[in-house]
Specification:
single chain; mainly alpha; about 0% strand; elongated; disordered C terminus
Length: about 220
């Protein structure tokens, strides 16, 4: 009984160390993709042996980050817009849902081609790519998105745009919580600019992500 009770705090401490290492890696790799594991251990506040006990090498650490990103992305896609949602609103809602995931794991962009490989990156992104292609296909049928490109190709173009925007966030050239990104995405899909702004504002208000909604939440917090 004593040994069993003693092992549980050790397991909790091990899980806590692992989570702290991964959280630190997300932050530090974004600043310096070439950071060493020894430097990462110091930044995470653990000894080198602890880090290597969880991740025996750089490849193992990056694979753990990729798997964490894949799980988070799958959950976000599952929580995304319903198939019955109008395509314009669905695409805007999808951007608001996915953008925080991309922002959290944007450091993987700098490492994807060099360390993870294109096949692994494709596996991670597959659920999002399929979801966007389905929304674009529906929007093309409804006449709200342009149809001169197949949905899968159009989806790839939007993905490339998002990657470029995430890289702009990485360099500090852009700061956005998804609002302007959603408008740009709808415009790129073929929605007129004015209409894109209207749709994004409607969706942002409904999801509580607009500046007005954020101000209202802050005021409510101040009153509570």
């Amino acid at each position: 009984m004593t040994k069993s009770v003693a092992r549980e705090p050790m397991r909790r401490n091990s899980r806590s160390n692992r989570a702290r290492i991964l959280a630190t890696a997300r932050e530090e790799l974004g600043r310096n993709p070439d950071i060493t594991l020894e430097e990462l251990a110091r930044a995470a506040g653990v000894v080198r042996r602890t880090l290597f006990g969880h991740f025996p090498g750089r490849a193992a650490l990056l694979e753990a980050l990729a798997e964490e990103a894949a799980d988070t992305l799958r959950s976000a896609v599952e929580a995304g817009p319903a198939p019955t949602e109008p395509a314009e609103r669905a695409l805007a809602q999808f951007v608001f849902t996915i953008w925080p995931v991309g922002d959290r794991y944007r450091m993987l962009l700098a490492l994807a081609r060099r360390d993870l490989g294109s096949e692994r990156v494709a596996e991670v992104l597959a659920p999002a790519r399929e979801a966007v292609a389905a929304i674009l296909s529906r929007g093309q049928r409804d006449g709200v998105f342009h149809s001169h490109l197949p949905p899968a190709v159009q989806s790839a173009g939007l993905e490339a745009m998002h990657v470029a925007l995430l890289e702009a966030v990485n360099t500090g050239a852009l700061e956005d919580h998804g609002h302007r990104i959603a408008i740009a995405t709808l415009i790129a899909a073929g929605v007129p600019e004015k209409r894109a702004g209207e749709v994004v504002e409607e969706v942002a208000m409904a999801m509580g992500t607009s500046p007005q909604a954020a101000d209202a939440d802050a005021q409510a917090d101040d009153l509570s």
